[in-house]
Amino acid sequence: MLLTIACGLLGSTLVLHYPARGWTAAMLFGACALAAFARRDLWLIALPALLPIVAFAPWTGWITFEELDLLVLAVAAGGYARQALSLARSATA
User: Fold this and answer.
1) Angle between the 2-16 and 22-38 helix axes, to the nearest 10 degrees?
2) Which long-range contacts (CB under 8 A, 24 or more apart) does 8-14 make?
């Protein structure tokens, strides 16, 4: 659960400081996290497929953090949340 919170908070902080259309980036961050939560194997297809698409550094000016970092944090937050939920369910059963 700690990794879920850490990835979610770090990603949310980066999204709020995103230079181009921050609310759109926040919605996409949440959608990616929810998609990773709903489908656990989605990241195996999504991350390599979106790698050439999510490089907006020439337009946003972000050099230190890229959109791929946000995507990885969103997928990690969703995946770790799913794993924490399944562990909590198995512990109570």
Assistant:
1) 160
2) 8/33, 8/73, 8/77, 8/81, 10/73, 11/70, 11/73, 11/74, 11/77, 14/65, 14/69, 14/70, 14/73
d(CA 38, CA 63): 31
Report the predicted TM-score, pTM, of the whole model to 2 decimal places: 0.85
| Token representation of residue 87 | 């562990």
Per-residue pLDDT of the chain (93 residues; tens, 9 = 90+): 899 999 999 999 999 888 877 688 899 999 999 999 999 888 888 888 888 887 777 777 777 788 888 999 999 999 999 999 999 999 886
